[in-house]
Records
---
Amino acid sequence: MNIKAMTLPEVTEAVKALGQPAFRGKQIYSWLHQGVRSYEEMTNIPKDLRARLAEKYPFTTPQVVRKQESKLDGTIKYLWKLSDGNCVETVLMRYHYGNTVCISTEVGCRMGCAFCASTLGGLVRRLEPEEMVDQVLFTQVDSGLPVSHIVLMGIGEPLDNFDNVMRFLELINSESGMNISMRHISLSTCGLVPKIDELAKRKLQLTLSVSLHAPSDEVRNTIMPVNKAYPTEELIEACRRYYAATNRRISFEYAMINGVNDTPAHAKLLLKRLKGLPAHMNLIPLNHVEESPLKPSTKAAVAAFQKILEDGGVSATVRRTLGGDIDASCGQLRRKYTKTEAAQ
Ligand code: SAH
């Protein structure tokens, strides 16, 4: 196993197996989670031990291939090259409550949502736990900005990479690591029902975000293939079970698509479907993706939709667009880069 994917007890065991005292484990773990690029930077570790570690537990770090900073709001977007040459994106957003990093969980995605740039080339591979940790760490190191919040809303479907994502959460939450509180983490899923149930069992205090995007199978089937496996009503039932198990309010994402899911009738049906479930609705005006014919809803349609939800007792906010000048919505930068690379 990659040493950066090991928990503190695992690193400690590994170090003890090399005949070293246990406290070295904590020192090394703490260095790794500060974003060092080699063992040489671990200045309080004896030189010969550094050399043995480098031989037995080599590790790599991601390289920045593109960095774009929004002039509008300071959002920074990174395109990283991983050790096997694949690329993923990370976005740092600056909010009044702290800096939030949006990470990718897979290289590409196999969910096939009609409006999403990340899925256009399909799934290449899943990310390892340390590749997710590195996105947070090296965004912090490179930008010099402390990260307090994480959203798993970049490229990929986190629940389709369940075990690696669970290990990532354990690492990022650990006291000797970045120590990011579960309450500052949001995990977004397109709705893999059995995995939502599995997550519920862990009773984590993170926020579960569900990409609903439609109130009925009739609409959802046309934009999200996953709905054929886990229909809308089953998904909402899973959300009810999740709430019952964790007592955490569900956050729903709803990308507003002109003429597809944005009429008052859709809003009313949504209210009916969500009845009794403590939820927050995030309305996101669709980000236009070059390859897709789908268009964002008008401002008036979004406002009318929001009002129906609010009047019906469901809190609903319209998500502010950040990084509008840097293609900050997920999958777009990697897609452009891969296309230009392929053309060369
Ligand atoms: N696979 C996960 C997380 C990644 S996407 C999921 O489906 O939830 C993060 C959010 O952005 C999801 O709600 C996704 O549906 C939404 N999204 C993707 N493409 C979009 C676009 N072009 N405009 C608006 N939202 C989009």
Note: Residues 3-56 form a domain with the DNA polymerase; domain 1 fold (CATH 1.10.150.530).
---
Amino acid sequence: MSKEYDVVVIGAGPAGYVAAIRCAQLGLKTFCVDRFKGKDGKQALGGTCLNIGCIPSKALLDSTKHYHHMNHEYASHGISFDDAKIDVPTMIGRKDRIVKQLTGGIAQLFKANKVEAAFGSGKLLKDNVVEITTEEETYTVKGKHVILASGSVPISIPNVEIDNEHILDNAGGLDVNAVPEKLGVIGAGVIGLELGSVWNRLGSEVTVFEAMDTFLGACDQGMAKMAHREFKKQGLDIHLSTFVKSAEIKDGKVEVVSEKNGEKTTTVFDKLLVAVGRRAETEGLLSDDCGVKLTDRGQIEVDDQCRTSVPNVWGIGDAVRGPMLAHKGSEEGVAVAARITGGHGHVDFNTIPWVIYTEPEIAWVGKTEEQLKEAGVDYKVGSFPFAANGRALAMNSTTGMVKILADAETDELLGAHILHAHASDLLQEVVVAMEFKGCAEDLASIVHGHPTLSEAVFEAAMNVDKKAIHRAN
Ligand code: FAD
Ligand code: NAD
């Protein structure tokens, strides 16, 4: 006989663990199974995000930012030193400790909220029964509701075989123990730029191959062009319209054959990072007769409420449609828990913030200018450069600008795009304003502390109606 729960969650990434905690908080008897093994071979909750994604990549970005600033920024403050050194194993060790602290924290939160956690692989059978396979045994549990939160895995490409020593995937790219002299990166997407920046800052010669002819196609193109110039200045050698055909390990090096306009080039690297996107993980998740349908892209098919094709079986996070972002998955988890208990859950994809944690960071919410033009929306633009912001000048951090897009007639905020070292934190006030259906004038009427970087957002909002104080309108 299967043990019975109100909710069984498969996957303990930011979608699954948040869903499990919220379900338990709402009084539901909750079970959560995950099969991820940490570096010590033991269960590590938190999924891709905490173990091999958001958190470890930000830890490395932070360490290398300090190193980069020592070498390139501090002199202007009058701070000098003889010889900045980087000890990569110490840097990686710091990252590993942060990961362990956070994943251990999820285990404690599960205990505190009385979520029953299991280590193993979960497979949905029919009638909401989930089969759990561990190294020792196989057993079943049954949920009145089942939440599928199995996340995503890196996409692989033909003729490029990952060994995570020379040719690295997302996880391998976070665990390099010495600075590679030459690093190749396939994909100028979020991971390629973030991890490419990590190693570039430590002195690697980084070459990025990008198949598309547009740099960061999902970004507002004005911002993407500015960011591209900054990355070039930093030494990231980005080749657009360049398709990698193959990579081969020869004498401890990686030989990459790429093609641009029909012309083939061979380049040799010490390491190659493959960052060409991720796909929904459904391996071993669904029995043939469980009834859950997949889309033609291999994602779990769900409606706008995260319902799958089977009653009381839900799908959330990277495994379903929508942006592959930790906070999107978490919000879906919270929304599903609310729906299960008869409440209302709502995730507005239009107000999900996006951030690329390079330096400068690129952060945005809502629509780009390109999207508004394509949709035929009449809009107004307000902008403000950080070069005219007192705090940015005091910080010697003047690269970038804020751009705010508002409806030409109603003034409703339609989008915001920020390029700056602290763009991620600055964006959030616009996210709040958009969530409350605010307009540019609302942002322009709120008192902003002085001197703060947030005054650039304030001034950009004023510039929407050409009333900025500290720039010519
Ligand atoms: P996951 O985090 O992938 O978790 C799914 C879990 O389910 C995993 O632990 C997996 O082992 C487990 N699982 C799968 N199948 C089964 C099964 N059958 N049985 C048991 N367990 C199973 N997003 C951001 O928002 N901000 C960032 O800064 C950011 N940085 C990133 C950096 C990198 C290098 C990478 C790779 C990703 C990054 N992401 C970032 C994306 C983010 O990690 C994902 O969007 C997020 O982890 C998705 O959450 P999830 O819970 O849906 O899936
Ligand atoms: P991505 O989709 O951001 O970028 C992949 C890039 O690889 C694309 O630009 C694509 O055109 C290119 N590409 C694909 N095949 C290629 C080939 N053969 N040769 C050259 N270029 C090729 O994917 P990613 O960077 O792997 O990230 C995966 C997901 O993880 C993203 O969807 C993102 O949402 C998430 N993520 C988010 C963050 C963040 O929020 N800061 C950080 C890292 C990852």
Note: The first strand starts at residue 3 and ends at 10.
